[in-house]
Amino acid sequence: MxxxxxxxxxxxxxxxxxxSGSLHFDRRLIFADIQGSQAFARALESVGIxxxxxxxxxxxxxxxxxxxxxxxxxxxxxxxxxVHTLVIRKLGEKVGALSGKIHTGRSRNEQVxxxxxxxxxxxxDRALELLAGLMxxxxxxxxxxxxxxxxxxxxxxxxxPVLWAHYLLAYFEMFARDFERLxxxxxxxxxxxxxxxxxxxxxxxxxxxxxxRDLGFAAITNNSMDVSGDRDFALDFLYxxxxxxLHLSRLSEDWILYSSExxxxxxLGDGVTSGSSLMPQKKNPDSLELIRGKFGxxxxxxxxxxxIMKGLPMTYNRDMQExxxxxxxxxxxxxxxxxxxxxxxxxxxxxxxxxxxxxEESWVVATDLAEALARSGTxxxxxxxxxxxxxxxxxxxxxxxxxxxxxxxxxxxxxFTPECAAVLNxxxxxxxxxxxxxxxxAHVKAALDAAAARLKQLHA
Length: 460
Prior knowledge:
Layout: H1 14-20, H2 23-26, H3 30-46, H4 52-69, H5 83-95, H6 108-144, E1 149-154, E2 157-163, H7 164-189, E3 191-192, H8 208-215, E4 219-220, H9 224-229, H10 232-258, E5 266-267, H11 286-309, H12 324-347, E6 349-350, H13 353-361, H14 366-375, H15 380-397, H16 406-412, H17 418-422, H18 426-429, H19 441-458
Parallel strand pairs: 3-4
Antiparallel strand pairs: 1-2, 5-6
Helix pairs in contact: 3-4, 3-6, 3-8, 4-5, 6-7, 6-12, 6-19, 7-10, 7-19, 10-11, 10-12, 11-12, 14-15
């Protein structure tokens, strides 16, 4: 069946029907379409289009239809243009001519916007739940090895020693911002478009605030033309999803490196790795590589909808049908990747002796030395030069920081003090960084407690 006609002497060609049909992907919206239609039936009763008995009959039929949609074979043989026409056809099979009233004063333009918002609201809630699980796993991982020391990197070169927990808290902060972005996107999704008509507003005096309450929307839209042409809310979600995937990709890259034989810091769980069809010794970080690769898909989804919307004249254009596949894909990939990342973090084991050895054998304490000299009165530029010469001498002679002591430091440069010898131990140097946001052990312990409290508040 068609929701339009009369104006046309002939029906659409078979080629056009195949080309324009969307049921194969927009059927994911069926439960949102049913939920929205039930609320609309109640709204139609409120303006006298439906009697109480008719509304009750339609709502019950929609409940039956939702149950039917859960069963295998529901879509078998369906040739409907989209999910909306399928729902109306199936409704007609249950209630007959009464089904013709359900679309009174409603346009597919606003119906699509409503369905997508209802569906996306649920997907954002699912993503938030999964993101909170990942953030919790990061904190648990940090608490498992709270005193472990690792080299921090810039330019992928050993830079300064940090606590493993401090490193994990860096990703916690990234994901906390992602949580906020998803919440903000949900606010803009959670606005009722129903009552806007095709573009000029409905010709029936619906109480839009009442419909919003019925469907759990926090607000109603302000302009019917804007509703018809708006996909900003979808772009907001796609941006939030892309940024979260960016952070997941960076975490994946780190852990692919850290679990390699060259680093040897991490042992990934057997359940999130795979072997080689040829090389028996391999334990490949496929889960992390897939997460890293899926970022490209999600970012492509964002770019796709941006390009679709660019330059569209007001208001609705059929181009906008192409919003759904990238939106569906991004939600799937984000939620799948979050679940996978949580599993990776929860099952990974740190080998603390390996990064500790890397920190102790390298010169990540050089900044601590320079700052110790500065605290003793040496101008920092000169202190930087002295510490640099010490590193150069050590590289030439094969010395590690632990090969120096207070006496040999003093012999190398009279500016060195006993405090300088103490910070040759990476764990000691970190104690000078008890500043908000720093890697000082006391601060990191407090930051872990604060992060747990924030997560509890976010997830309340």
